[in-house]
Amino acid sequence: MRHLILSISLATLCMSFKPIDKTPNKTQKLKADADNGGITLPKGFGALVVSEGVGKARHIAVSEKGDIYVRLSKLKDGKGTIILKDTNGDGKADETKGFGNFVGTGIAIGNGYLYASSDSSVSRYPMKNGIPDESKPETIVTGLELYGEHGTKSLALDDKGHLYVTFGAPSNACQEKNRVKGSKGMMPCPILDWHGGVWQFDANKKNQKHADGFRYATGIRNIVGITWNKEQGELYAMQHGRDQLTTLYPEMYNAEQSAELPSEEFLLLKKGSDFGWPYCYHDRFQNKKILAPEYGGDTKTQGVCEGKDKPIMAFPAHWAPNALMFYTGNQFPAKYKNGAFICFHGSWNRAPLKQGGYFVAFVPFGKDGKPSGDYEVFAEGFAGGAEIKSANDAKARPMGLAQGTDGSIYITDSVKGKVWRVIYQ
Amino acid sequence: MSDAEASEYTMKYIITLSLLTLFLSSAMMQKNTVSKSKSANFQADSGKIIYETYCLPCHQEDGSGVPNMNPPLVNTDWVLGDSLRLINVILKGLKDAEVNGDSFSNEMPSHDFLTDKEVAEVLTYVRKSFGNKAGAIHPEDVKKQRAKK
User: Fold this and answer.
1) Which of A59, A172, A285, B22 has the greatest CB tally within 10 Å of its CB?
2) What Å distances lie between residue A26 and A62, A87, A102, A326, A418, CA to CA?
């Protein structure tokens, strides 16, 4: 048995070392910080702090040159994207520059362009010698309705010339009066005509309006983490489940049940998928979609929800999955290949239970494009030691994910904009 | 009405009457306990209970809110300043307001289903908690503001 384990670990070791040989110059120079930048990782992994703080960070992308682009939710010195450059190869940013004058969440590099979103538009810049040309912006999607709740636009590019944009619902549960106790659910929910889903656009056509896009998937309250899986040729995303079951329906849900319901859902989005919001929510204890109380639900009845699309995995409530990425690199051990990393930004509405999330999870995937095992905690400790009672107690909250050309992964924090680079040693 | 029918009728009457008495007495008992605890503890306590039920899920236990989503109730003119404006936030809700230089995505829903007394109690609690030190809000002020529409 011992021999078997030894040979397996030797084999794993060889497999994980082999690809590194291909890119010896960069990774070998990298050294993790002694404290891994304050986060805890599985054995063999280390982290170094690329930047201590770039501002209120959102999503992140890394170019082929290794330059890091971080979107911001609040302008910093008049700029909405921060570019971090490592000029001496130690992994730390030596050069910090601003780019573009609009804030927002989404960013993606592809088709020879860098795409960035505001809450009402998507722009792109041509990449010239690996650097986006700020002087030649093109507007790809424009004139989107501005709204606060779930208004951020996340982006994904497929390999067929499409751009996917998230349109979160400006609502919790499509009540006539949003989040007001006793207000009925609208039937049918008019929000679904233009929001509560993912729209597909032409990635290369200028000045498209919302109506020029195609509603690719619907029945989704809000998505922040979305990505195109090249190996599967499919779109995946994380749904934020609804809030306030107990404040709106105290006679059906006590505070503890409201803290544990509904699931945060890992979705495989096919053309025409319908995940059931606002009529349904997912209950991971009953492992099914349940009719929402606004639509006559009683915590058990499924009704119309029986036919809705199911998640490929369900997570505890309110953890706020804000980034999703499939690992295609060769630096990490073999089990990580093609698996998913998820940033759980961290909950604020699990009182009176402990808040949860505030970590990066890993989900192993099989060849069939479905999870092949339970999720595991990959990186944690972002929030700091003390118990989190209010979201503001957290020192850092994991928000964005990207993979570097050498197979490192980068994590952003939304509080101060700290950026970590995780390496396998 | 036959004897059997009559006795069934009486029986039903007795059952209904006793159920009614039971219901009334338990309702009265409940009312008694509530008013007792209210008179024993000052209104800040009931304000806290209202806060925990309707406000805490978004504004958090310490009133600090949620970054980018729900504004803080601490150290802000919205809470410490004009009391009529503050009463209106509860009665009418609020959207797209800037608080302490930051914007917040979630809409504050109207809480006009709370009574004048409850609005006054919860606002007084908020104005005197989390390090806030501002004057109490009185039910009459809420009543006046509600009448304005």
Assistant:
1) A59
2) 15, 11, 33, 22, 22
Taking only residues 337 to 396 of chain A, the set having a beta carbon closer than 8 angstroms to any beta carbon of chain B reads 348-349, 351, 389-393
Q: What is the mean pLDDT of residues A263-289?
A: 98
| CATH class of the B42-148 domain in this structure | mainly alpha
CB contact under 8 Å between B60 and A56, yes or no, is: no
State how far the alpha carbon of A7 is from the alpha carbons of A4, A10, A72, A224, in Å: 5, 5, 47, 42
Other CB atoms closer than 10 Å to residue A155's CB: what's the count? 29
Tens-digit pLDDT profile for residues A184-234: 999 999 999 999 999 999 999 999 999 999 999 999 999 999 999 999 999
**Minimal CA separation from B16 to chain A, in Å:** 26
CB–CB contact A392 B105 (8 Å): no
Give the residue extent of every domain in chain A.
36-424
* A96-124: pLDDT as tens digits: 999 999 999 999 999 999 999 999 999 99
| Cβ distance of B61 and A415 shorter than 8 Å | no
Chain A CA closest to residue B59:
A390
Question: What is the dotted CATH code of the domain comprising A36-424?
Answer: 2.120.10.30
